[in-house]
Amino acid sequence: MDPFDAGAGGILRQPKAVWATAGASVVAFMGIGLVDPILPSIARGLEVTPSQVSLLFTSYFLITAIAMLVTGFVSSRIGGRRTLLAGLALVVVFAGLAGTSGSVGELVGFRAGWGLGNALFVSTALAVIVGAANPIGAARSASDKGGGGRRAGGSAAAILLYESALGLGMACGPLLGALLGDASWRYPFFGTAFLMAVGFLCITAFLKEQPKPARKTSLLDPLRALGHGGLASAAVSAFFYNYTFFTVLAFTPFVLDMTPYRSGAVFFAWGVLLAVFSVIVAPRAQAGFGSLTVLGGSLLLLAADVLVLGYGDHATAVVCTILSGAFIGVNNTVYTELALGVSAAPRPVASAGYNFVRWFAAAAAPYFAPKIEEWTDVHIPFVVAAVTAVVGALVVVVRRKALTHEAEVLEPRHATEDGVGVFAN
What we know:
mainly alpha; 0% strand; single chain; 74% helix
């Protein structure tokens, strides 16, 4: 059955609340790659070094990682709708303030506030979509050859919609950054604030409050969930993978050193591949070869790709940057399914613990990659990124038995119990 069939039960046949939340999610994910094309422009405009500008990512994801322990605590007490609106409001305020920054310190601080708002919104969005989505129909198995949880009914539609929103947002973020950033590096921040304000109005108009859970989530629940060997292994492997991912996302723009338009076009193509391989190619590859085989192979291919990126000429670097989107898309989907299905912990709690670990690498890579270049040369940051991708694959191989445990899938209603979904895959 084609999940995109607009007929009864198709993914395109969804309530307005789902589309409002998915649309706002696209804009939220746009905020991750928005600054990519304008990083060199910001460095020149504020007269700072690449490592200082990269703190825009570090502050953003460091706050995001810590916030993973808080989002479930908050949403299980005030409800998913209010958590979404609170997150959107914070993004509107801090994205707008980022555009007024007079120094890199102010910009980094405002990006941290933006990260908190984005964590509250995006981590809750999947749970809200799960609760409101129409089912696709028959249950779908993510993999029958090792690893990955099973998806069923409305959960399948929700995850596919969420992954589609992530891919579209990651593709359009650099494009918007380039279009607005060509005039001024400040305009992309104002543009994001405006779009998130529109999302705020849509959520207010179309999404009704969902029932609060019977049990409130504690701050320590995500950490307790990491006591499961399979979930801990998935988180550790994803930690090393995320270092590679965000070396490409945050450091490559300085290496390419292109105009905002050209850089935006490169990362738009990168995002398109990410979306296609995440939503379409990865599930088919998993069905044919098994989740862990696909994940291990994709991580090794990503390692080879970033190594060639670091040592190739400018044209090769552009091609390898775009191509990395394919491997990153596959990895994102498989890691998401492992985190959601490898343990018996409720999906929101498992997701929060998993993301708490892996987003620290997203905070570290943008800072250390330019520092490593300063200490050595431009090639070594990519060597380190290739090594971390290989380490991620080795964790998958060594911990294969723990990762192949397939927990009983929870009904979609449980996904809303703590209000924490999967942030940015």
